[in-house]
Amino acid sequence: MQDVLHALSFIALAGAVFVVVILAEAWYWRRHGRAQAYELKDTLSNMTMGFTYKVVDGVIVALVGSAFYDLVYPLGLQYQPVHGVWSVLLLFVVSDFAFYVAHLVWHKVRWFWTSHAVHHSSQRMNYSTALRQNYLVIFNGGTLIIAVAIALVGFNKTWAIVAIEMSLLYQFFLHTEAPSFLDRFGAVLNTPSHHRVHHGSNALQIDRNFGGVLIVWDRLFGTFRAEKDAGPIAYGVTERQPRSYNPFFLQLHELGTLLRDLWRYKDPRILVRHPAWVEKRYGGTRRP
Fold first, then answer.
1. Does pLDDT of 226 surpass 90?
2. Does 78 or 251 have the greater pLDDT score?
3. Which one of 51-55, 59-63, 193-197 scores highest in mean pLDDT?
4. Most CB within 10 Å of its CB: which of 25, 46, 84, 251?
5. Confidence at 209, pLDDT banded by 50, 70, 90
6. CA 261 – CA 190 distance, rounded (Å)
7. CA nearest 146: which of 193, 99, 205?
8. What's the pLDDT tens digit per position in 76-118?
9. How far apart are the first and last CA of the chain?
C-alpha cells in the first residue's frame, strides 16, 4: 500500500508541473497570435488520458511490477552497480536504448500500436499532447521491453523506476512547436524539432526518430530524419484517425479496430504486422 501511495504522490507532483507548463505555453501562443495551437476539448481530453494512464501505471507497477521484476532479475547478469557516475551512465544508456527498441516495436507491430496509437492521434502538437497516453500499454506488454532490459543487466527496481520516469519527464518537453533551447543539441539529443517529425503523418515522417533522450540510436540505425528534410508536417495518424474527444473512447479505439479486423478477416498475422498492413493487404483506407 505504501508503494501505491508513493506512486500517487509522484503523479500529483508531476501533474502540477505539467499543468503549469501547459498553461504557460497556451499563454505564449495566445500572445503570438496562435491561440488555435490549443483547443479546449483536445487539451482536456489529453490531460484526462494522462491522468488515467499514470494512475493505472503507478498502481500496477506498485502491486505487480515489483514481483515481475524480482522474477526476471535472477535470469540476467546480476550486475551490482555502485553509486557512482559510471553506474548512472550505464543505466542511462541501457534504459535509453531499450526505450528506442521498444518505441520502434510499438510502431511496427500492430498489437503494440493498439496502445501507442492514441499518442499520435492528436492533430495538434503542444505540451498537452505529451499527456495523451494509454493505460493499455501496461497490459499489452509494451513497457516490458524497457523494464526487462534494465532488470537483466542487474539494476534494482528503484533505479529502474527512476530511469524510466526521468526519461518520460524529459520527453514531455519534446512536444511543442515553440522555440526550444534543446534544439541546439540536436546532434546528440532528441529535440522538439526531431520529435515533430516523429509525430508527422506524411510519408517522409512516418516511423522516424524513435529515440527517447538520445537521437544517436536513430542516426546509427537509419531511422533518423531531420525536420528540414521531412517536408510540411501534418499531425495525426494515416489509418483509422479517430474523430472524437472522448478520452476513454480514444484509449480503446485502436484496440476495438484491431478486434474488428481480426473478426472480419480471420487473419492472425494482423497482430504482428505493421499497423497499416490491413489497409494494404485487404484494400483501402477506412474510416473508423
1. yes
2. 251
3. 193-197
4. 46
5. very high
6. 35
7. 99
8. 777 777 767 888 899 999 999 999 999 999 999 999 999 999 9
9. 40
CA distances, 141 to each of 136, 148, 270, 283 (Å): 9, 11, 17, 29
Secondary structure of the chain in HEC code, one letter for each residue: CHHHHHHHHHHHHHHHHHHHHHHHHHHHHHHCCCHHHCCHHHHHHHHHHHHHHHHHHHHHHHHHHHHHHHHHHHHCCCCCCCCCHHHHHHHHHHHHHHHHHHHHHHHHCHHHHHHHHHHHCCCCCCHHHHHCCCHHHHCCCCCHHHHHHHHHHCCCHHHHHHHHHHHHHHHHCCCCCCCCHHHHHCCCECCHHHHHHHCECCCCCCCCCCCCCECHHHHHHCCCCCHHHCCCCCECCCCCCCCCCCHHHHHHHHHHHHHHHHHHHCCHHHHCCCCCHHHHHHCCCCCC
What's the grid cell of residue 145? 521491453
Q: Which amino acid is at 34?
A: R
Instruction: Choose between 232 and 62: higher pLDDT.
Output: 232
